Amino acid sequence: MSQASIRGALTVGMGVVACAIGAVCLSAGGLLHEPEEIEMVEVGGCGVVSTPVSQEAELPVLAPEEIARFAAGDALFKGNCAQCHAMNDVVVGPALAGITKRQSEKWIVKWVQNSSKVIASGDVYGVKLYEQYGKQQMPSFRLSEQQIKNIVAYIEVQQGASRVAYN
Ligand code: HEC
């Protein structure tokens, strides 16, 4: 037997083995004999339902009278306070976010109407703040108690509070 004919016989033999392994694998995977299984796999693959993600934002819910107070406070704040105050940054005066946690509404009303009177009365918080801000006098405002409460309502909404104090 020549070398060339031995190589030829080996090649043919390997081809036969490869075919046999391929057939075993196909039938083991169910591809040749169990078409029902393939159908089930397809149904599973296409049956994935993507659930829509809720886009609902967490915004404060306001009653109509609260919206009116907020709108009035918005205009008053922009017309009288915004040149010196912001919610989260010191401008000329302190950031006003969280003011209702630092002081009562009653104090805020007195302060806005006449801060020098509050300081002169020896109010510890007021004196400290005044000194902290380089003894810069905040102007007195001829605003009613209700108008100042509207400004407070505006600040509370602006700072992200979910409710507006109502008295
Ligand atoms: C010309 C600048 C100026 C204007 C206008 C002004 N403020 Fe002030 N405000 C200050 C300064 C300065 C302070 C810090 C205390 C001080 O120096 O007397 C202050 C302090 C305050 C405080 C206390 C803050 C805290 O952290 O306790 C409140 C409340 C306040 N102002 C509200 C108002 C409101 C409401 C208005 C508008 C009606 C207003 N301010 C307008 C300058 C101003």
Automatic annotation (TrEMBL):
One of its GO terms (molecular function) is electron transfer activity. Pfam families: Cytochrom_C (PF00034). The lineage of its organism: Bacteria, Pseudomonadati, Bacteroidota, Cytophagia, Cytophagales. InterPro entries: Cyt_c-like_dom, Cyt_c-like_dom_sf. Residues 68-159 form the Cytochrome c domain. The chain crosses the membrane at residues 12-32. The keyword Transmembrane applies. This is Cytochrome c. The keyword Transmembrane helix applies. Keywords: Heme, Iron, Membrane, Metal-binding, Transmembrane, Transmembrane helix. It comes from Hymenobacter aerilatus.
